[in-house]
Write a structure and sequence with these properties.
Blueprint lengths: L1 H13 L8 H4 L5 H18 L3 H22 L20 E8 L7 H11 L3 E5 L3 H6 L9 E5 L7 E5 L3 E7 L8 E7 L5 E7 L13 H16 L4 E6 L7 H10 L26 E5 L3 E8 L10 E7 L12 H22 L1
GO molecular function: endonuclease activity
Pfam families: Exo_endo_phos (PF03372)
Organism: Algoriphagus oliviformis
Amino acid sequence: MLTGLSAFFFLSSYIPLIKLDYWWIRIFDYPRFQKLIIHLLLIAAWWLFGEDRTENLLWTGLLGLGALYLFFQVVPYTFLGKKMITRVPYDPQRGIHLMIGNVYQYNRHFEKALSLIRQRDPDLVFLVETDQAWADALVPLHEVYPNRILAPLENTYGLVLYSKLPIVKHSINHLVDEDIPSVELDLKLRNGQIITVYAIHPTPPVPGENPTSTDRDAEILIVGKKSKENPKPSLVIGDLNDVAWSYTTSLFLKISETADPRRGRGFFSTFHAKVPLFRWPLDHVFLSKHFGLSSIKVLRGIGSDHFPIELRATLTAEDTADTEDASPEEEVEARAKIIKGHENQRADQD
């Protein structure tokens, strides 16, 4: 049994290196920290219970290599990692205070969400998995948030966005799948500066819903290209159904030239709210180089399987983000993933 577990978890460390979109491959992207802990426990088990010295050395060596690889995968999201974005004091005139969350459509603890939003009092609230019942329950927010984009749906991909800041223009887009909306909007900050927010919630690679990550990857990368080509300061926010350390998210950071505020600070895991042992960062805020980070925090639960996350960012006079550039090969790969996503949707429609 110990040999079988060791072989499985050793191989699971490297399965994400296979650049195929099948869900049973991509699912191994998520629990990298958990796999690291299991590797260390298995090493201890071999020393405690292993009976053959040669076998002990073989498996502790292999598991040690796996643990070292996993450590370097997750360490950028700890205090040991290099920060991608500088912390700056929050300036309400030149900044934005936002809160995002996946409410879980079948969660009916509406008052928990309302109470948290009232307590935190953000400038912008973006919630996904909002059906009509959620949209109706959140009507009390209309008094405080005069600017709203409401697209409730019954397919777990509804979304609502509330803003105290003026919405200069907006569009509800269907970037890959006609059933999956996203929002692109320009906001006017209190100092008059216009910024763009891309709010998305692509489909996850799970059996029974989407057997591959093709659509998710395409939507994430489309938004990444939009953000890079946009001369205005921009943020990409939402439940991306992908973890911060996956290859797709790393490619997105290079394609978009945005910064991940978690780098060098922590995981800020938002899912699964009800299963502490299986928890990873699925809800994201990425910032263009125009912003400095003022604060980031995972908030208390609202009855959902996700925790909401809150962030304050402030425009800076100089670029404070250490963004990454995509190589020519990565640019080609991103284009190929986007094309594949569109082809996948056309095939589904036919």
